[in-house]
Amino acid sequence: MDTNNTTFKRPQPKLQPPLQQLQHYNSLNNQLTRLQQNMVNLEENIELTTEQLKNIQRFGLAHGAIFMAANRIMRNDTSL
């Protein structure tokens, strides 16, 4: 049998000093706060976009109605 001890040892994770750990948590907290604010902004933008889409649809309907009315007027003028 081989008497050499060739077992592999896992490296022990280095523990961060408390100050570094606190700074890391503070950084994560700031990033989370920013992410939360961005999510609120996204929600507001989505609501505004859906409202604008309703208005664009109404504008398109009005534009189509005006176009059809103008077409009818132009046809009647040329038939005289």
From TrEMBL:
InterPro entries: Hsk3 (IPR042332), Hsk3-like (IPR013183). One of its GO terms (cellular component) is DASH complex. GO terms for biological process: attachment of spindle microtubules to kinetochore. Pfam families: DASH_Hsk3. Keywords: Coiled coil. It comes from the Eukaryota. Residues 25-59 form a coiled coil. GO terms for molecular function: microtubule plus-end binding. This is DASH complex subunit Hsk3 like-domain-containing protein. It comes from Glomus cerebriforme. The lineage of its organism: Eukaryota, Fungi, Fungi incertae sedis, Mucoromycota, Glomeromycotina.
